[in-house]
Design brief:
This protein is 29% helix and 24% strand. It is of the alpha+beta class and 301 residues long. The chain binds flavin-adenine dinucleotide (FAD) and uridine-diphosphate-2(N-acetylglucosaminyl) butyric acid.
Length: 301
């Protein structure tokens, strides 16, 4: 990495040496050496353009709710800090990528718009939800997505409607150096009381099946087609398996929780042990659902 970084980057608001424990819900990882926090789309574009020009690798962070960080990260990380700004136009609502995902779900519900109830318990940012095509209870973001805006790896701005193949289960075309800047969802008129009741029902279901009182990163492994990774982990007898302060949740097998002092190495070891044990028990090789920074060979297989 060039030292110092180019002026075009250093002109963007940034912080040094921020612990990933503070940037992620799981609470492990080393230091984020360079955290850039653009407050305008122009600054985000300047970030991507400067990195492209210098040939610098970089990453984009949202709410850090789907991340397992294994160590320090030297490359610049961008976390959007665009102003919260929800805009309604009839049945369509637009939001910047840095909008809180749960907050957006609540806000549109309060407007009497139905379609984002499923998202009421999915933390993180709208940009991260778009990248992950986040979903729950049989729904996912692409189901309501009308348009999305993003920067290409060269920093060009594109706005488009989703097309077949661009979003699927916990995957989208937004990897590979694209940065989501915002989206527009198309919702339906709904009765606010019924929307609230549906949200309450989802919350109750989540509260009884997921370990929400401990730090975690949501489900760690993807559900294999027609299977539940949580059930497979459970059937392999792994609930309660512990490496230091990292534990397979006794409540839900696909949640690994941090009891407070877990390290990246403990999480990496626990993930590897769970994967090996499920493979031995059921012959199924689980794939991570979380993003792992930097990507380690053995866990992704
Ligand atoms: P991050 O974790 O910050 O990043 C995830 C990925 O998105 C990274 O690759 C990152 O580079 C990329 N990214 C972030 N912002 C952008 C951007 N602006 N442009 C391009 N790429 C970007 N997920 C579900 O799908 N369903 C659930 O039911 C669910 N339940 C959860 C419950 C709990 C308690 C927790 C902690 C997590 C849960 N998750 C769930 C996982 C997580 O909340 C989602 O994947 C979420 O959408 C990630 O958003 P984020 O902003 O935190 O992304
Ligand atoms: N199950 C077990 N033991 C367990 C966990 C689950 O037997 O330890 C069984 C349950 O009893 C149920 C089945 O497995 O019969 C499915 O469990 P659950 O309803 O909890 O759903 P899941 O498939 O484990 C998925 C998503 C969640 C999402 C829920 C609700 C994935 C990997 N997980 O979980 O998403 O919240 O459905 O829709 O797709 C995430 O992506 O981070 C996430 C939490």
């Amino acid at each position: 990495m060039p030292h110092p970084l180019p002026d075009a980057l250093l002109a963007i608001p940034h912080r040094r040496d921020v612990p990933f424990a503070k940037l992620t819900t799981l609470g492990v990882g080393g230091l984020c050496r360079w955290l850039f926090e653009p407050v305008t789309e122009a600054q985000a574009q300047a970030f991507v353009r400067a990195c492209a020009r210098e040939g610098l690798p970089w990453r984009v962070l949202g709410g850090g709710s789907n991340l397992v960080v294994l160590g320090d990260l030297e490359e610049p990380v961008m976390r959007l800090r665009l102003p919260q700004d929800l805009r309604r136009d009839g049945l369509e609502v637009s939001a910047p990528a840095s909008q809180g995902h749960i907050r957006m779900s609540q806000q549109v519900g309060d407007m009497g718009l139905s379609g984002l109830e499923y998202a009421s318990g999915i933390p993180g940012s709208v940009g991260g939800a778009l990248h992950m095509n986040a979903g729950a209870y049989g729904r996912e973001l692409v189901d309501v997505l009308a348009r999305y805006r993003f920067l290409t790896p060269d920093g060009d701005l594109v706005e488009k409607a989703p097309e077949p193949g661009e979003f699927r289960y916990r995957w989208s075309v937004l990897g590979g150096g694209r940065v989501a800047l915002g989206l527009t969802v198309r919702l339906a008129e709904g009765d606010p009381a019924r929307i609230r009741a549906q949200v309450e029902d989802y919350r109750r279901r989540r509260g009884t099946s997921q370990p929400l009182s401990k730090r975690n990163a949501g489900c760690i492994f993807k559900n294999p087609p027609g299977q539940s990774a949580g059930r497979l982990i459970d059937q392999a007898g792994l609930k309660g398996l512990r490496v230091g302060d990292a534990e397979v949740s006794p409540e839900h097998g696909n949640f690994l929780v941090n009891h407070g002092g877990a390290t990246s190495a403990q999480f990496a070891e626990l993930m590897a042990r769970v994967r090996e044990a499920v493979l031995a028990h059921s012959g199924i090789g689980l794939e991570p659902e979380v993003e792992i920074w930097p990507s380690p060979g053995p866990i992704t297989g």
